[in-house]
Design brief:
Length: 493
C-alpha cells in the first residue's frame, strides 16, 4: 500500500494581500492590489485597462482590511498548529518592507512583523514557505517607474529579496519568487502592476515586463543560495493542462500552443533560457524583446523545484464556434462536457491533477510542490455554529487521491498545500463569500462582520489527514463533540 514519505510537507496557504489588511499600518506603503475595488469597477483596474488607477472614497477595497491577519496572526497560527500543519505558506508584502519600493533601507517595523510571524511558526514546528511577490508590487514603483516594464525595478526587487533572505533565512528555507507568474498574461495589473496606455502594443509591454520579472527571479534564486545553503527556491505556475476539445488535429494543435503559452515562463525558470518556440511566438505577437548581453547568462540560474497551483483543467478547440465558453476561470476556455463546475464555474477535475503532475515532471525532471489546491464555495453557519463543508472535504480528498496516484506513477512531490488555510478575500472577484478555508471568518462581501474565527468540519478532517500522514482520508465523526464555538450571527452575503 502507498505510504507518503515521513518528510512529506502537508500544509495550507494564505497571501499577504488577501489576508493581512492593515494596509496603512506599521509603515506599510500602498501596493497594486490596494487599488483594486470590489464590484463592477474591479475588472477594468485588475486587467490594466485603467491607465492611472486611483483610490476613490466611493469604492470598497477588500485588501485594505483583508481578514485582519496582521493583528490576529498569533491566534490564527495557533489554530493552524492545532490542525497539525507541517508547512504554512504565506507571502511578504513588499510595501511593508519598502513602502514606496525604491528606498535604500527597509522599514524596521515591517521586518519585525515578519520575524515575529516566522518565529511563531517555528514555535509550533511549522515550516514557513514564503512567496516574495504574491500579486504584489509597491504603487510607488508602479507610478514612478511603470512597474515591471522598467528594467530598474529589477534592482529594487533584488534589494527587497536580499533583505528577506538576510532577515528571514534563519526561519525560512522554502521560497517562491513570483506567485503564478503566467497570470500576468491574463491579469496584468493584479499580476504585475502593469496598466496600459491607450494604443500600446500590449503583448510588447507584457513580455518585456515578464523578461524583467524572469531576470529578477533568476537573480533572487542566486541570492537565496548565497544567504543559506538550506534555502530552496521554486518557481510558481498557475497550473492545469489544456485539453483538446476533441481528437480533431486542429483542437490538438490549439492545445499544444496553449500549453506552450502557459508554460513559457516556467520553461525559462526551470530550463535556464527561452524555449525554442519563443522566437515564433514573439514574431506572431509583434514582440521585440529588449535584452542586454548578460541576460542569457543570468537566466541560466534555475529554480530548485517547480511549484504550482491546481484548481481546474482547461479545454480548448481550434474553433470556438458553437462551443460553450467557460468564463468562470481566469484563463478563458471551452466548457468541458465531461466535468462539473464549482459555484464559480471552475471545472472540477481531480484526474487532471494527476495529468498535470505527470506532464510537469516529464517536462522539467525537477521535484514538484503543490502549493495551492482547494474549492471556493459558499459556506453556511448552521444554527449550532458548525460549518458542514463536506463538499470541500470531498474535493480535497479526491485531489489527494489523484496526487497519490501521480506519486505512484513516479512523480517526486515535496508536499501538498491547500488553498486556503483561513477564509480570505478572493483574488479574482474580491468576494469573501468565495470561501476556501478550513477556518471560517465572519466577514461579508461588503466588509461587515465580527472577524471571529470558527473551525469548519474540514478543519477536523485535514487534521486527521495530516496526523495519519495521508493514510486516513475518509472522515470519522468526532468533530461535533469537539466543537466549542457557541452559535452566533451569520453574515448576510
Ligand atoms: C490563485 C492565487 O490564483 O488562486 C490565489 O494564487 C487565489 O491568490 C486563488 O486566491 C484562488 O482564486 P480566487 O480568485 O478564487 O481567489
Amino acid at each position: 500500500m502507498f505510504q507518503f514519505p515521513e518528510t512529506f510537507l502537508w500544509g495550507s496557504a494564505i497571501s499577504a494581500n488577501q489576508a493581512e489588511g492593515a494596509f496603512r499600518e506599521g509603515g506599510r506603503g500602498i501596493s497594486n492590489i490596494d487599488m483594486i475595488p470590489h464590484g463592477a469597477d474591479r475588472m477594468p483596474v485588475k486587467l490594466g485597462n485603467v491607465a492611472q488607477p486611483a483610490l476613490d472614497p466611493d469604492h470598497f477595497y477588500p485588501s485594505h482590511t483583508g481578514v485582519d491577519f496582521y493583528h490576529r496572526y498569533r491566534e490564527d497560527l495557533a489554530l493552524l498548529a492545532e490542525m497539525g500543519l507541517r508547512v504554512f505558506r504565506t507571502s511578504i508584502s513588499w510595501s511593508r518592507l519598502f513602502p514606496r519600493g525604491d528606498e535604500e533601507t527597509p522599514n524596521p517595523e515591517g521586518i519585525a512583523f515578519y520575524q515575529d510571524l516566522f518565529r511563531e511558526c517555528q514555535k509550533y514546528g511549522m515550516q514557513p514557505l514564503v512567496t516574495l511577490s504574491h500579486f504584489d508590487i509597491p504603487m510607488g514603483l508602479v507610478e514612478k517607474y511603470g512597474s515591471w516594464r522598467n528594467r530598474k525595478v529589477i534592482d529594487f526587487f533584488l534589494r527587497y529579496a536580499e533583505t528577506c533572505f538576510r532577515e528571514f533565512s534563519p526561519y525560512v528555507h522554502y521560497w517562491l519568487t513570483f506567485n503564478e507568474i503566467n497570470i500576468l498574461l491574463h491579469s496584468p495589473f493584479s499580476g504585475a502592476g502593469i496598466a496600459f496606455q491607450p494604443g500600446e502594443n500590449r503583448n510588447q509591454v507584457i513580455y518585456q515586463a515578464a523578461h524583467h520579472v524572469l531576470l529578477a527571479s533568476a537573480q533572487a534564486v542566486r541570492l537565496a543560495h548565497k544567504y543559506s545553503a538550506e534555502n530552496q527556491v521554486g518557481c510558481m505556475l498557475a497550473g492545469g493542462s489544456f485539453y483538446p476539445y476533441s481528437c480533431n488535429p486542429a483542437d490538438v494543435w490549439e492545445s499544444v500552443q496553449k500549453e506552450q503559452e502557459n508554460l513559457f515562463f516556467i520553461d525559462v525558470q526551470a530550463r535556464g533560457g527561452y524555449p525554442s518556440y519563443a522566437a515564433k511566438m514573439f514574431r506572431e505577437k509583434g514582440v521585440s524583446l529588449v535584452m542586454e548581453p548578460q541576460d542569457t547568462e543570468i537566466l541560466k540560474t534555475c529554480t530548485d523545484f517547480i511549484s504550482f497551483s491546481y484548481y481546474a483543467s482547461r479545454c480548448v478547440a481550434g474553433s470556438t464556434e458553437d462551443k460553450e465558453i467557460n468564463d468562470g476561470n481566469v484563463v478563458r476556455s471551452v466548457k468541458n462536457p465531461y466535468l462539473k463546475t464549482s459555484q464559480w464555474g471552475w471545472a472540477i477535475d481531480p484526474l487532471g491533477l494527476r495529468i498535470t503532475m505527470n506532464q510537469l515532471y516529464d517536462r522539467y525532471q525537477k521535484p514538484l510542490f503543490i502549493v495551492e489546491n482547494g474549492l471556493g464555495a459558499r459556506d453556511t453557519v448552521e444554527p449550532d455554529g458548525s460549518i458542514q463543508d463536506d463538499y470541500r472535504i470531498d474535493y480535497l480528498r479526491q485531489h489527494i487521491l489523484a496526487m497519490r496516484d501521480a506519486m505512484e506513477d513516479g512523480v517526486p512531490l515535496m508536499g501538498y498545500i491547500t488553498w486556503s488555510a483561513i477564509d480570505l478575500v478572493s483574488a479574482s472577484t474580491g468576494e469573501m463569500s468565495k470561501r476556501y478555508g478550513f477556518v471560517y471568518v465572519d466577514k461579508d462581501n461588503a466588509g461587515n462582520g465580527t472577524l471571529e474565527r470558527r473551525k469548519k468540519k474540514s478543519f477536523y478532517w485535514y487534521k486527521q489527514v495530516i496526523a495519519t500522514n495521508g493514510q486516513c482520508l475518509d472522515w470519522k465523526e468526532p468533530h461535533r463533540t469537539e466543537h466549542r464555538n457557541p452559535p452566533k450571527r451569520v453574515s448576510a452575503e
